[in-house]
């Protein structure tokens, strides 16, 4: 990080009053990297910075206001771009969140994460954390060194949300740009803008006004949500995503299976459709009991069940991959897997 900016952040941390933390709700921040921990030599650089270069202690020191709402502790789980978050990081996070939330006095957990794949980790935690306490995922679209960096406010709002009673029993939450979303439905919808996290059909759960969360509805859980116990898992089955297009042949499907894929997600055309070649090959896999889940490349919408494959319901390709990994790890067969994707089928 640019030395003068770092010095300014640390000085402001020392000058601003660190409220006495005793008696405040306990919140642990698990840091994994991303742009919120990114830095650049230029204050206008919002694309070529180095993500995952600032540690959790520096992030906490840069937002002393957090001490006014919670007794905050930080743990560094990893420090990478979110494209490098792997099974080990996911399993470590889930086990640690479950452990922390079982501890006496721990009100909530915040996870800092790169925004690119934040929705996958958020969804994974939503399906594997067994607690009513708030689990809040947060990132930023601008690095810490940028003019109008969004990370500090996002982090303060995430910690505030983790202390909020009204945030309980809502599953894992996603907070960025003053918006509160359900991890089950929220996705990154724009590559560079601050208002990127949206759940196009279900909408937001609430928003922040002057540092305070305001919810639209009382607590509820998504109808299709399942719970998977990952406490004994050390790895996840390999699942590949294939992107569909006109007159697609089966070369990539064959390669994925040869490379050890135990299941396949198709980012299909429209309502999960593929070329005739692909449909025939997928039908054969279905008969052999190898799960192929048809999602959509449209970005949003419901994919219905096919005669030759499982329909992804409301799950986009990247969330379908997480769900299929968890379903396979639990030993589910094809009919059971289909119900995980749509309990109302
Ligand atoms: N490349 C970054 C990441 O996902 C982007 C971000 O955090 O916004 O790690």
Explain this structure to me?
The structure is a single chain. Helix 4 (118-128) runs parallel beside helix 8 and helix 8 (317-329) packs across helix 9. It is built from nine helices and 14 strands. Helices cover 28% and strands 20% of the residues. The chain folds into two domains: 21-215, 3-Layer(aba) Sandwich (Rossmann fold); 239-341, Rossmann fold, CATH 3.40.50. It has helices spanning 3-15, 56-61, 87-101, 118-128, 151-162, 251-258, 276-287, 317-329, 334-341, and strands at 26-33, 71-80, 106-112, 135-138, 172-176, 179-182, 187-188, 197-198, 206-209, 212-215, 239-243, 263-268, 292-296, 310-311. With 345 residues, it is an alpha/beta fold. The strands form three sheets. The chain has an eight-stranded mixed sheet, sandwiched between helices. The chain has a four-stranded parallel sheet with strand order 11-12-13-14, sandwiched between helices. The structure holds aspartic acid. Aspartic acid is lined by residues 34-35, 51, 81-82, 114-116, 139, 141.
Topology of helices and strands:
Layout: H1 3-15, E1 26-33, H2 56-61, E2 71-80, H3 87-101, E3 106-112, H4 118-128, E4 135-138, H5 151-162, E5 172-176, E6 179-182, E7 187-188, E8 197-198, E9 206-209, E10 212-215, E11 239-243, H6 251-258, E12 263-268, H7 276-287, E13 292-296, E14 310-311, H8 317-329, H9 334-341
Parallel strand pairs: 1-2, 1-3, 3-4, 4-5, 11-12, 12-13, 13-14
Antiparallel strand pairs: 5-6, 6-9, 7-8, 9-10
Helix pairs in contact: 3-4, 4-8, 8-9
């Amino acid at each position: 990080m640019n030395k003068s900016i770092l010095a300014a952040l640390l000085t402001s941390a020392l000058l601003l009053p660190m409220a006495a933390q005793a008696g405040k709700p306990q919140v642990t921040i698990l840091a994994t990297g991303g742009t919120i921990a990114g830095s650049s030599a230029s204050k206008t650089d919002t694309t070529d910075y180095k993500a995952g270069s600032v540690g959790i202690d520096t992030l906490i020191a840069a937002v002393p206001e957090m001490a006014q709402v919670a007794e905050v502790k930080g743990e560094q789980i990893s420090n990478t771009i979110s494209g490098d978050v792997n099974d080990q990081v996911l399993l470590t996070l889930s086990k640690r969140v479950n452990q922390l939330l079982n501890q006496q006095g721990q009100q909530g957990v915040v996870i800092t994460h790169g925004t690119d794949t934040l929705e996958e980790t958020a969804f994974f935690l939503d399906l594997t954390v067994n607690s009513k306490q708030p689990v809040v995922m947060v990132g930023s679209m601008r690095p810490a060194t940028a003019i109008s960096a969004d990370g500090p406010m996002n982090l303060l709002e995430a910690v505030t949300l983790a202390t909020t009673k009204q945030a309980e029993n809502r599953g894992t939450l996603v907070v960025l740009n003053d918006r509160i979303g359900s991890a089950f439905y929220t996705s990154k919808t724009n590559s560079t803008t601050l208002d990127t996290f949206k759940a196009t059909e279900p909408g937001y759960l609430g928003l922040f006004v002057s540092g305070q969360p305001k919810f639209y509805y009382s607590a509820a859980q998504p109808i299709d949500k399942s719970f998977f116990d990952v406490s004994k898992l050390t790895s996840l089955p390999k699942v590949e995503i294939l992107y569909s297009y006109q007159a697609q042949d089966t070369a990539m499907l064959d390669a994925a299976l040869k490379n050890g894929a135990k299941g396949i997600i198709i980012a299909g055309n429209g309502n999960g459709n593929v070329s005739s070649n692909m449909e025939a090959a997928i039908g054969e896999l279905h008969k052999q009991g190898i799960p192929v889940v048809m999602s959509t490349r449209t970005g949003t919408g419901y994919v219905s069940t096919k005669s030759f494959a499982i329909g992804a319901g409301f799950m986009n390709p990247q969330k379908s991959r997480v769900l299929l990994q968890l379903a396979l790890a639990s030993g589910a067969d094809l009919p059971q897997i289909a119900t995980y994707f749509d309990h109302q089928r």
